[in-house]
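Lab notebook, bench 4. The sequencing result for the construct came back, and we need a structural model before the next group meeting so we can plan mutations. Quick request posted to the team channel:

Model the 3D structure of this chain.
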Amino acid sequence: MELSNGVKKVVVFDYGFGNVRSAERALARAGADVEITRDFDRAMNADGLLVPGVGAFAACMQGLKEARGDWIVERRLAGGRPVMGICVGMQILFARGIEHGVETEGMGEWPGSVEPLQADIVPHMGWNTVDVAAGSELFAGLDADARFYFVHSYAVHDWTLETGNPLMTAPLVTWSTHGKPFVAAVENGALWATQFHPEKSGDAGAQLLTNWIGTL
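Done. Here's the predicted structure in token form:
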């Protein structure tokens, strides 16, 4: 759905659990034509689909299913169409979330569990650096000491997905640390995601979104 002027169309999926307006503004500043919607066809046909998320894992997962967002994400990825998840929008891409001892099934795009942060101070709220994966496109052009804005009490502490096929590119995993190291971003083919909020991360976040849009 690239527009005639070369601008890429990005849909921010509105399922009731994300900072859709701040994401819309940040993507527009990064050069995209942005629409907030849960319309099935528009979400399927956009150049890029952004899935935000705030709040509890279980509630976000339920809201996504009620809006058929899980099906949209799966269908887009099956066709190699780019999807990006932010914060809990990243967490629900994993196999499961565990909150207050209750386990909720996630989308299962990646194995692993979203579990409580193992740190003295929770939630993790504020700016932090990341350990960028070698070869990252998402963080291209950013300094090693670039900081991003995090607000979360849960994270994935163990990454288990590898590829034994030499013809397949292994996912690129970027880490950060709050107490124990946790997954801060993943680049896996058409599916990218960040635990932090690029839309709230100033110039560094703007560069990151520009990088994503540039791959659409």
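The chain has one domain: 9-214.
Will bring this to the meeting.
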